[in-house]
Amino acid sequence: MPHFSIDLVAEQSADFRQVLWTGVHSQLVIMTIPPGGEIGAETHDHTDQILTFVSGVGEADVAGETKPVTPGDLVAVAAGALHNVRNTGVNPLVLYTVYAPPEHAEGAVHATKADADAAEESGQDEPPTN
What is the pLDDT of residue 2? Predict the structure, then answer.
């Protein structure tokens, strides 16, 4: 049984993206976005996403609407919605996100956004097929 003190685990990770757990229908991922960084505008056609912010400050764009995000905020992104998250602060923006169904390779760890983008482009970051 996976058990996480999610805020602590997320705060201790310096990696841009780390998959903590992958189930049949959902996936838990932690992310650390450096100051001035972003996730990058993206759309998941068949995946809903819930992002919960642990520390730092930023902005979330979802379907053409931009809102500030701070610790404790949650942003829900419906499948098919164009979205992005930007770090607007001086400290890392730390969050955890749940994808349903899984979006990334089980156990994937990407130290930087460039690593994450390269893994996606090469096909190494594909979600498991069930």
Answer: 80
What is residue 58's three-state secondary structure? Answer: strand
Task: Write the burial class of residue 83 (CB in 10 Å: 0-12 exposed, 13-18 middle, 19+ buried).
Answer: buried
Closest CA to 82 of 99, 67, 64: 64
Phi and psi of 6, rounded to 5°? Answer: -60, -40
Residue 40: C-alpha distances to residues 16, 23, 62, 96 (Å):
12, 25, 12, 16
Residue ranges in the chain whose pLDDT is less than 50:
none
Per-residue pLDDT, 130: 66
Q: Are 27 and 127 in contact (CB under 8 A)?
A: yes
Q: What is the DSSP string of 4-54?
A: --HHHHHHH--SSEEEEEE-SS-EEEEEEEPTT-B--SB--TT-EEEEEEE
Residue 9 near residue 30 (C-beta atoms within 8 A): yes
101 upstream amide cis, omega within 30 of 0:
yes
